Amino acid sequence: MTLAVQLGVLGLYLVASLAIGLIAYRATDSAAEDYYLAGRTLGTGVLLFTTFATLLSAFTFFGGPNVAFSIGPEWLLVMGLMDGILFAVLWYVVGYKQWLVGKKHGYVTMGEMLGDRFGSSRLRGLVAGVGLLWLFPYVMLQQQGAGQAVVGLTDGAIPYWAGAALITVFMILYVTLAGLRGVAWTDTLQGVFMLGVLWVAVAWLATSVGGIGALTDQMVSTNPEFGALGGGAYSVQYILGTAITIAFGVAAFPQVNQRFFMAKRVETLKRSFALWPVLVVLLFVPAFLLGAWASGLGVAVPEGGNVIPAVLNEYTPAWFTALVVAGAMAAMMSSSDSMLLSGSSYFTRDIYRPLLAPDASEEREGRIARIGVAVFATATLVGALLTQGGGLGAIVALGDTAFGGYAQLTLPLLCALYWGGTTRTGMLAGIVVSQAVYLAHVGVLSVLGMEGVTVAGVTLLKASYLTWEYALWCMLLSLVVTVGVSLVTPPAGSENPAKFGVGAD
Amino acid sequence: MGLDANDVDVSPVEATLWVLAIAVVVALAVPWFLWRDATIVAGLPAWIWWHIVWMGVASLVFYGFSRRAWGLGVEL
């Protein structure tokens, strides 16, 4: 009975998403710009929610609350600084500028924009390649999370592979059919749905335990540290380092960066910018507090399981837990579907078209893009299936460090957008060097599990230097190399800083 | 064209104030003055209330900026 209810709720949810995709399909034509950017016509509500839902992932419902459950609710502040404030500032500094430049010259991807400004298809391909390198494992982790969520919800009645495959098939269906318009519309449904179920969950829990005061009292009496700000794992360096790295990473994440090109009017960008911090509070305060409060309720979280379904299973009926797990699936699907679409556009526009088929028509590119989505999603699904039993450790490590990987692109991007003295060689060097050094760290620390490499008495490739994490130092390196090399190299004849509205020095 | 705020109709004083206001919003997103403080107010730790209120303040500052000084430093 319970299983039937849970499956019914999940099934209804998936069918509703698909139905919205089909409606959007009727409004979409086959040209690439319409497919990727919904013809640059998104209004405030949809742009805000599609960007927001895109930022959310398994972390909102599972990872984040799990962290709050085990080390305290300070992640609220990390999230507030990161997504509520730093990302809003980048939304203006990177996003508004890209919107202006993109509107003027018709760009669809970051690689296309930079390649055109610096007259370099090599730079274009490099940016797309770096984008795809980190995107693949990140999408794979989302499918893995979906598979595990279904197993957890149904106590294994639906196996892992079936859960992951189900989500993938639904995503391929509505993404290939309806493109960005379908993604944006379903994201809006998913975002509203997620906000709704989280607040109902808090109300439900508070009512059955005796109010939020009682929840907090029990949390603090079990873990006195949870009430005090900082301490334990939460050092100043951790809070700042995490917030800065991820905020800068988000700005270059393909599916987020591409949204900078989508707004119809500047009003849309302005409203989204101002609403950003409020939305962060509305979503993450209930999600992370549920995790932190659960630590005082003696909730048993199964090995490898998640705290939110565990606490809801104890205090709410089965159908509601199923709704919240559907909300988590919504979070995973809403970030993965956008990533699939962006990954596909990076491949078709920046690699396939310039290098393999310069004469392809818009229609043909639109078709290739749809095939690309299906191939990409199927490949990441195969990856997600192979990770069971501990396979593909290296790719999982890449997925876990993807935000830092994207963060290495953001400072060179800012140089290009604002400093006319940036040269093609400077961009290529800044991106290649910072990616190589960051990847070396990920390889040594996460793949090989070492603590560093000692050469002639000096330990390099460590997790942190002078107490600050390596991703931040790599970002600094990306800036120093981009600026340094730009200063000592002349611009190539085909470079055109005026395209970004900046004069050459 | 270029980096200056030619297209934005705010005085240099106001532009400086906006930059300062946004810097304060960023700097106090984490209430450093409450570090290690464990006071509980109305059912939640005081620093969580700070977070909630401060995000509201940030939204207001961003809204004001978007009305008055949008384009500062960014116009194409």
Automatic annotation (TrEMBL), chain A:
Location relative to the cell: Cell membrane
Coiled-coil ranges from the UniProt annotation: none
UniProt KW Transcription regulation keyword: no
Transmembrane feature ranges: 6-25, 37-63, 75-94, 123-140, 160-180, 192-215, 235-253, 273-295, 315-333, 371-397, 403-421, 428-450, 470-489
Membrane-protein topology: Multi-pass membrane protein
Family membership: Belongs to the sodium:solute symporter (SSF) (TC 2.A.21) family.
Database matches in PANTHER family: SODIUM/PROLINE SYMPORTER-RELATED, SODIUM_PROLINE SYMPORTER
Name by which UniProt lists this protein: Sodium:solute symporter family protein
Provenance organism: Halosegnis rubeus
Organism lineage: Archaea, Methanobacteriati, Methanobacteriota, Stenosarchaea group, Halobacteria
From TrEMBL, chain B:
Annotated keywords: Membrane, Transmembrane, Transmembrane helix
InterPro entries tied to this protein: DUF3311
Record flagged with keyword Membrane: yes
Domain of life: Archaea
Membrane-crossing segments per the record: 15-35, 47-66
Stated name of the protein: DUF3311 domain-containing protein
Classification lineage: Archaea, Methanobacteriati, Methanobacteriota, Stenosarchaea group, Halobacteria
